[in-house]
Structure formats: structure tokens, C-alpha cells
Write a structure and sequence with these properties.
The chain is α/β, with parallel strands linked by helices. The chain has one domain: P-loop containing nucleotide triphosphate hydrolases (Rossmann fold, 3-Layer(aba) Sandwich), CATH 3.40.50. The protein has 8 helices and 9 strands. Strand 8 and strand 9 form a beta hairpin. Helix 3 packs across helix 4 and helix 3 crosses helix 5. The longest helix is centred in the last third of the chain and has 16 residues.
Length: about 240
């Protein structure tokens, strides 16, 4: 089987800065700045993961476990401090609602801008524009500046553009929490359709029922490490036991 996502021993650290009182900061300076006022946080600690083409994988874990950070590495939004990430085929991600959207441009202009960012040609966007508009249910607001959109409208347009890029690998991070129930169901049906068409799906969500419907494999992260990798039912059961 072809490997679509190959993550090898990646590590990522963030520096957490602690705000101190003026007195503490003054004492720290007077002592010649000895001792660090910041602290390092291991978001990912030697994570390895392979996802085969056509697999649907849920990344699960409590807040701060590293799942969203891992997804951002797969998408290329972040680069690891160590290790490597390789993907095969076009990657489309809904990592943050409206990422790549310019607030001062209309919805129409943002479809072209975001489509280009996601690798579509102008001709492809022209051909798919009506379908993008139809799926998003934005209607007449397509020519309104997106800074006036609600978060639900933002999501609809972002999701619609992403699915119309026809990606081989589709990354989704918690975005289905936004928007009304009928649209969530529509998105869910579309994600299932992508999975049935042999696309590779990697999903991050706190909605355990949703990931059970969409994904067949689960990967549980804890403090930046993979602690369980198997059938989604087993990983979801383990996750429920941690709550």
C-alpha cells in the first residue's frame, strides 16, 4: 500500500514565557539575569506515524496532547525541530477557519485567492465556482467583504473551497464545531464521500461520536507522544476512560 503521510520521529518545542511581577523582574535583572524566566514545553516528543492512502485516521487526546500541532506539521504550516514529515499528493486542510482568507476582500475574491493557495488554477476555480457557491450556501453575500461574515459563513466558504480542490489528503481540525446542524451534517456527508472515494483523511476532534462515524483508525496522543494506535472503537473507548 502507498504511504500518503510519513511522520518520522518529529519533535516540537514551544517556549512559554511567564509574566512576573515588576519586583521579581527587577530582582532577576539585578542578579545579572540568572535563571530563565521562560520554560520549554514539548508539544511533540519523538512522534512517528504512517498513514496509508485511503485511510481515515482520528487524532485523539486531551487538550495539550499535541494532536493539533501534529496536524499542522502534516499540513506544512509548522516545521519540526527534529525529524521529518513527508506527504504524497495534494494536501487540503481545514486547520483554522478562514486561514488564507483576506478580511478586506469579498467572498468571491477569497475563493480565487484561497483556491490558488490550495493549488488550483484560475480555470479550475472558474469551472468549480458555481459548485463552491452552491455548497457554501452563501448566496448573495459572496460579493460582501468577509470581515462582515459570521463564523458560520466563514466556515461554509472555507470548507467548500477546500473540498473542491479535490485533495488526495484532507486534514480537518475541530472546524465542524462551527455552523448549524444541517450544515454540519452536510459537511459530514461530504467527508464520508471523500473517504469512500479513496481519499486519505486525518481528523482532529473532541467529538468522539463524529470520529467514530468518519474514521476507522484512531491514534491517541498524550503529552506529545503516541500512546495508542489501533481500531477507532478501541482508541475512543480508551479516550472515554481518560475523561
Amino acid at each position: 500500500m502507498t504511504i500518503a503521510v510519513d511522520v518520522q520521529s518529529i519533535s516540537k518545542q514551544f517556549v512559554l514565557r511567564h509574566t512576573r511581577s515588576i519586583k521579581e523582574a527587577f530582582v532577576w535583572i539585578m542578579k545579572g539575569r540568572k535563571g530563565d524566566l521562560s520554560q520549554k514545553f514539548h508539544a511533540l516528543d519523538g512522534v512517528s506515524l504512517q498513514v496509508h492512502q485511503g485511510e481515515s485516521v482520528a487524532l485523539l487526546g486531551l487538550n495539550g496532547s499535541g494532536k493539533s500541532t501534529l496536524l499542522k506539521h502534516i499540513s506544512g504550516v509548522m516545521l519540526p525541530d527534529g525529524g521529518s514529515v513527508r506527504t504524497r499528493g495534494r494536501v487540503a486542510g481545514l486547520i483554522e477557519v478562514g486561514a488564507g482568507f483576506h478580511p478586506d476582500l469579498s467572498g468571491r475574491d477569497n475563493v480565487y485567492l484561497n483556491g490558488a493557495i490550495l493549488g488550483m488554477t484560475e480555470q479550475q476555480i472558474n469551472e468549480r465556482f458555481e459548485s463552491i457557491l452552491d455548497f457554501s450556501e452563501i448566496g448573495q453575500f459572496i460579493d460582501t467583504e468577509v470581515k462582515f461574515y459570521s463564523s458560520g459563513m466563514y466556515l461554509r466558504l472555507a470548507f467548500s473551497v477546500a473540498i473542491h480542490t479535490d485533495p488526495e489528503i484532507f486534514l480537518i481540525d475541530e472546524i465542524l464545531a462551527v455552523g448549524d446542524e444541517p450544515f454540519q451534517k452536510k459537511c459530514l456527508d461530504k467527508i464520508k464521500e471523500l473517504g469512500d472515494a479513496g481519499k486519505t483523511l486525518v481528523v482532529v476532534s473532541h467529538d468522539l461520536d463524529l470520529v467514530s462515524k468518519v474514521c476507522r483508525r484512531g491514534v491517541l496522543l498524550d503529552h506529545g507522544r503516541v500512546v495508542l494506535d489501533g481500531a477507532v472503537e478501541d482508541v475512543v473507548a480508551s479516550m472515554r476512560g481518560r475523561h
